[in-house]
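Working notes for the structural subgroup meeting. M.R. asked for a predicted model of this chain before we commit to crystallization trials. I am recording the input and output together here so anyone reviewing the notebook later can reproduce the run.

Input as submitted:
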Amino acid sequence: MARLKPLPQIWPKVWIVSDARNDAALARALERLPRGSGLIFRHYHLDPAERRARFAQVKRLARTGGHWIALAGDVRCARRWGADAAYGAPGLVARGPAMPRLMPVHSLREIRCARRADALLLSPVFPTRSHPGGKALGPLRFRLIAARADRPVIALGGMDERKARRLNWPRWAAIDAFLR
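Returned structure, recorded in token form:
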């Protein structure tokens, strides 16, 4: 079965990962992003009907900026809702029709398990508010693990524009960086 949208030759460089914390700033953040950036729509805090309605609103905003939108959830749901990609753990997005898949990983072992992923979000690069006290990979370990991946790697975890420049990595994603 054909993909809804061809895989990008170069995945978006900047991604917003949405949740309850950045929902109020999402419209403003999408407007400020460079054209062709990406959004991973999670919004797990909403009940299913509210989540679908909010996805439709955010999708319209994303399309206006020429942005990609990935839905956290299974591939069939992502296709039904008109997302460009599905996002989730291998067990969630490994099955289903052809569609770009993004998967979160935290180690080399998890990269090996994410065989159906088209791109990987490797985290946490730096300490995060999402996981206070959690151990971060740090720039060196991040680079060592990312170098072993055979797919595009998106840096996640404590990222913002300043840290992305420090890391000197072509693709990065954040939650809190877009609240400012």
